[in-house]
User: Fold these one by one.
Assistant:
Number 1:
Amino acid sequence: MNDATIPATIAYIQDLFRGNSGGHDAAHSLRVYRNALRIAEGEPGCDTEIVALAALLHDADDHKLFHTENNANARSFLTARKVAPKKIERICEAINAVSFSQNRGKRPETFEGKIVQDADRLDALGAIGIARTFAYGGEHGRSLDESVAHFHEKLLLLKNELNTEAARKLAEPRHAFLERFLEEYEKESNQK
Ligand code: NI
């Protein structure tokens, strides 16, 4: 990988996600990238290039947004950037380990996959997680209460499903903030 690969990948995802709002956009991918690098700092032994590129491209073939097969968007971008085929395989393997719905209960097999999955999950917690949940709910015609149900069904469980110690530390204040938000939401909802 040369030095220009990361900026080129950022430009690629900004273009790819243009017009998407809320849950899955370039800003989400950038936050996942920064989360992933922070986790990687606390987890020596991982390949940070794989972590960085998999984090940036983790939604490039998301089935909710694109009708691609076999990581086609990520693969064609990386191939055009002349990333080595072996490395592309490892990046796609890490990307495919991320999805919550497809991998429920299954831990990623590679270290890099674990880190990127944790980084993605961190972005579902805290103030950002709350904002994303309501943005996604609004796009899909869900009421506020229906979005709040999603906190109980998914988001509050994430803290215990993280793979790395570094991510568990970063998740703590975000999880606590979710709980505080829910408490206040219930209080205001039930006010007579
Ligand atoms: Ni994501």
Number 2:
Amino acid sequence: MFKSLLAASVAAVALGAFTPLSAQTAQDPSATPDARADALIARMTRADKLQIVFGYLGTDDESRNGYHRPPLALDGSAGFVPGNPRLGIPPQWQTDAGLGVATQGVARVKRLRTSLPAGIATVSTWDPALARKGGAMIGDEAKRSGFNVMLAGGVNLLREPRNGRGFEYGGEDPLLAGVMVGEQIAGIQSNGVVATIKHYALNDQETERDKSSNAIIDHGALRTSDLLAFQFGIEHGAPGSAMCSYNYVDGLRACENPMLLTQVLRHDWNWPGYVMSDWGATHSTVAAANGGLDQESGFPFDVKPFFGAPLAAAVQSGTVPEARLTEMARRIVRSMLRHGVFDTETSDRSDTIDYAAHAEVTRVDAEAGAVLLQNRNGLLPLAASVKSIAIIGGHADKGVLAGGGSSLVYPRGGNAVPGLKPDTWPGPVVYHPSSPMAAIRRLAPNADVRFADGSDPAAAAALARSSDVAIVFGTQWAGESFDVALTLDGKQDALIDTVAAAQPKTVVVLETGGPVLTPWASRVGAVLEAWYPGTAGGEAIANLVFGKVNPSGHLPATFPASLDQLPHTEAPHGGDVHYSEGAAVGYKWYDAKGFKPAFPFGHGLSYTSFRFSRLKASPSADGLTASVTVTNTGRRAGAAVPQVYLSAPSGVQWEAPRRLGGWAKVMLAPGETRTVTIPIDPRLLATWDEPGHRWNVAAGAYGVTVGASAGDLGERTSVSLPARTIAVGWRPASALRP
Ligand code: BGC
């Protein structure tokens, strides 16, 4: 069966290469995507429709029955859907993912491309414009590499900080994650490339993700947490597609879950895009198609084809209505039309990629996303005149760590630290060849800069003792298909303690995929969380350490003081996973429980200081508007991130004492003052009314507080609002046209 499916698609694509269309409504770029899609659909046969809803793995895989990709698929790519030369429908060439153009499997040739910093780093910038710029950059590389569908961006909430893929996502707050990932999506799609918001929904950890993991959560809590992140992401990015996830939700597979795929996405949000399955996440024909799945992906990742011939039989017998197949196909072509795929040349022109310009984009992102967690006695920035520096551990002499799995972007210049285990999936462990030590040497040309790899703590301590300052690089490798412990890998905690005991001026630079425990924090001077900083990460770290760039990143996730502060002290092991914390994800949980974390959500220091004053809030047509005056009270230029937190009127129960309502990122010269206005979405003032299927804003006085973090709150005011309901399909005027 699989062979004949493949043969059919090969025959279809062999008829001719794709050329952009002209003439007729279907081919007229000035016609609306809906009109063009209707015109095309009218000409599609059932076979045409069946073909476009079925996707292949884009790369050969001997381990899957000797699978060979369709001839037009790009070697090492995630996926391929044949085009339709008769109708002028281009193939869909699909590539991972959110950090740049990745290479899958045992490709003969790896695509060597620019890697953004981890998604969690981009979100730490709290700068939507930067997220969009990064998206535009990787979308450009995708287009020039011959792709027109990018399997990005990931917006799963960091409900479980041990999620091995937390580094790909947007942290723990639905607004922050949704806005930042949505902006990245908009950037990608500015290239005529469809982006794919994922993994829908509640794929909030990797353990047993494609086996027994069954997410169970109260539906009101779901609306105000994970779904809200997707909703904001869709409104900000208008992704052409969404990827349903591996896990079960409420006992039903996410890719055949009518509540998620049909009720929420289509009916409630009126989203016109198409749902593709994650690779291997389709498990049925009728339930999936009727539940709302539009495209089966990555065959033969699924044990057998569920669309293709079985779907043809189901349509023939009427168990899947013909109209449903038509809708599936229409959604796909409509998204391709809406996002310019028909009107954009898709071919491999990777020799035209401007890697130098793209390195700048990723470096600026890494600099703005690194978070200065601690800086005792102004240890940082280091003066260029420092005489000697001990650099310890983390392969900092060679490069910066990347996360593992399908999002991995292979670096130009090769893996700086080859041979680390695991070297097969979810590895290889890759270090981008951007050495922090080399960059530090360039910024302190007269300093004696020496390296100890950290394998011998006594030797590292001796080097630290004999130097003016020590910089220890602490790493945690995270990746797809596994969850992580909330610690640095191996014995690095002990190494940091040993070095700190020898050298009071110890700086710790973290390269982790998410929060980790920092038991040594009180014994070191400074801590800089650089996440996985991407292609130019070494330069970015050095620029921050020497103050060429003033840190301005803020945490999108809470760093716990201990494991017993987490909602699940032990990470869930699959099976029924009861997310009993509901919508109290991350900082909301800490607030609700009165826990004091090691470093709170929103936290991030600067080499200058800021004052927030004159907080005001008033009702607006949509919700609320807050304004705050921000002053740079220090002696360096820097960017502040005033955060507005909301609290419920008395008598109204929210999941937690406070929700993030909005923020601004404000660049200020020394002594400069500016007043910023921060609009607040009314759904952040509401509770979800499950029986009424709408949002309710209760009458009462809402608290509005400005903070430098969720743990450092300043002025507070309140605004009285009348009772109001908000329809489930309400969208703010600023939402992108889908
Ligand atoms: C991942 C997706 C990815 C897909 C294609 C899956 O393993 O979960 O994020 O897009 O593979 O590579």
Number 3:
Amino acid sequence: MTTTEKSIKSIAPINIAVVKYWGKENEEFNTPLNSSISVTLHVKDMCAETEVVADSKFKEDKLFLNGREEDIQKNKRVQRCLNMVRSKPTLKRKHNEDATPIVRCHITSANNFPTAAGLASSAAGYACLAKCLGHVYNYEKDLSVVARLGSGSACRSMLGGFVKWEKGKCPEGSDSCAVQIANEHHWPELKVIILVVSSNQKSVGSTEGMRRSVTTSQLLKYRAEHCVPGHIDKIEKAIHSKDFPMFAELTMKESNQLHAICQDTYPPLRYMNTTSHDIVNLITKYNAAKLKAAYTFDAGANAVLFTLDEFYEELLSTLLKYFPFTNTEIESWINMPSSQVKELKTKAAELPDVCIHEDALQRIICTMPGPGASVVVSDE
Ligand code: PMV
């Protein structure tokens, strides 16, 4: 018996939302209650890598995540992605092509950053999966829709730079997809600093958290109808015109609103911890005279900060001063040579009333906007 084998590898970035998605309109199709906007972060600092091998001699599909085999049949999200790319057009079905056996595949995926700690690890993973499955199964439609079926925010990791996930109008979500606002080269002065506060798994996953908010939070409904459309409009304009103060203010207000909804949820959801609030306090004081940095938090304790080139060293230095690291192995704590870290120490801003929080951060990742999911190797 002859076999046909196809294999493909892809890498995909994480993204950080500046207009947040929180709440599903339809759980089965994974469509959102509101549109959202994110910045894709560079794959050189954090990415997921996935390989899909499809072979007609495979008896079943298999899934390996970070080196461990998972039960792929029980994984509804992966099943939804597989069903989408393997579904045949109605036209072919009429010609009895349903009898053709499905070519099974083996999926291997790994992340180089903490899984489920509010760093959108699933977004990178499902963007990779969609990219690979699209190639292996010759799927010609929008792959951001396939990624969305795995994890909503994953659709935004398909594209680089500044990305909008359009809520869409079709009930089954065929137009609930990602569109690029501007590519990763659009705003080179914009810098991103990730403060890893915790690499623990979040206590309530985003799907369960959203479900709880949708059923109990009145604020969530108000936000989706009355706040998000204006925020989307303004932040798109701020991105196009590189208006940092506008971008920074909206980013922080959006983050505050997401966590206010979490607090309004019953029972309440708590993703930010005391260190997260200490970071908010530091950035607020740092911005007292002029907006120089913005914070944002997803469903986890880790902070993502935005700043501009001109404030970058001062901000980093200020962070090192108020959140110092006492261990000697600086290289495993910040992705920057220790000589550069030493030089930075002199540039910190003086912030009255801000306490020093020793060893409160597990890691600092300095990064920037980057490209979307891409294929690494293809041997067809
Ligand atoms: O894509 P999910 O189901 O992991 O949800 C992500 C939700 C937030 O990260 C909190 C916000 C967002 O828009 O990414």
Number 4:
Amino acid sequence: MPFSRSLTLYSPAKINIFLKIVDKRPDGYHNLSSLFQAIDLCDILHISLSSQDRDTLTCNDPSIPSDSTNLVLKAVELFRRKTGLMFFVKIDLEKYIPSQAGLGGGSSNAATTLWALNELLDQRISLEQMAEWSEEIGSDIPFFFSQGTALCTRKGENVKNICLNKNCQPLWIVKPSLGLSTPLVYKSLNLSNLPFYDLERYLHCCIRGEWSCFNDLEIPAFTLMPSLARLKNKLLLAGFHTVLMSGSGSAFFCLGEGKLPDDEELYMKQVKVLNRERNIWYTP
Ligand code: C5P
């Protein structure tokens, strides 16, 4: 085993340009239809094969668990189980994507880990195969094996690459200090009064480069955290023409020429969409 090899990879966040909840499934999950877009807000993953007989994970953010509950180590275990290979890794994760934000940070880290292991261990496992494996540990992980823009359906694991015309509006991520738990947001969702959206029309507007945005998880998230609805209004009043929660929150993405509030409690970062070539991992 070539113990000396190591890799450093970017692990990007995502936003959901639109997110429609279709129905609840017998397994407790929800079918959805969502246009996912990768963005250049990235964590950085340093990974090498280890001569020790266990995996080690370190992280610059002490609030991130570094035990087997972390999706990075779940991805390592998944790769071992699916390939039957015996190896151990040393991983250092530089975290920049806020947690509990709906930005897919943990899912992206898991996808990046699988991509890295395929390279480090000289395997030729297809992206489609790794995407299929990864849905066992998280519904949002398969998206990251797309080329950065995809329509995701079923639990999120059915991924179809989409090509969008350029949207030239400035794009900002804004997140309050409090985060939201994904299972709790889904639990607070009332399926009986979701609005109707013409998804074909929404998708075609996005393809033309005019983002049409909505998120069925905003109402349950606002019910759990009423301050989020107030933050959305504040950002709209500040001049952004679109302010939408990403995934299950609590981060928003804002489009347009707004004036950001002067509030130290808020995380704010200007970002760009990020796409990749088929055989190259994401590079901002
Ligand atoms: O798949 P993942 O572990 O990321 O999902 C976290 C939680 O989000 C699930 O336990 C479930 O409560 C909810 N979820 C859902 N329907 C989906 C995706 C996630 O209900 N399509």
